[in-house]
Design goal:
It is built from two helices and eight strands, in the order αββββββββα. The protein is α+β, with helices and mostly antiparallel strands. A six-stranded antiparallel β-sheet has the order 1-2-3-8-5-6.
Length: 117
Amino acid sequence: MVNAARKSCQIWNHDLQEKYVTQNFYAFARGEFLVALTNDENNQQHITVPNAPFSEGAKVCNIFYDGTDCQNIKGGSIDIYLNKGESKIYVTQSKMKEIHAEVAKLEALVAPNHDKP
């Protein structure tokens, strides 16, 4: 899923931009690809990240939750909740379709060979 998202967003064409840094939270972007990480495996981190790399009003989704962890960008910010060491990658909802298509294509390539020794 991560590689499909990287490919869809072509992150190699964008410089890394730190968006928010604390002792227990780190967020960075490469184009319209926002990564949020925490090193706190015992607590929830809730951070409102300003200057999100998405257009105002854009619907963005966490690639790991298949459309259930989505929100609209308001005031240029994104609210991120990370539970006990969780990581998230946000992309625009329109990119999610491309990502799912890429994952399906890769799974189809692997599936026929899955049972072979």
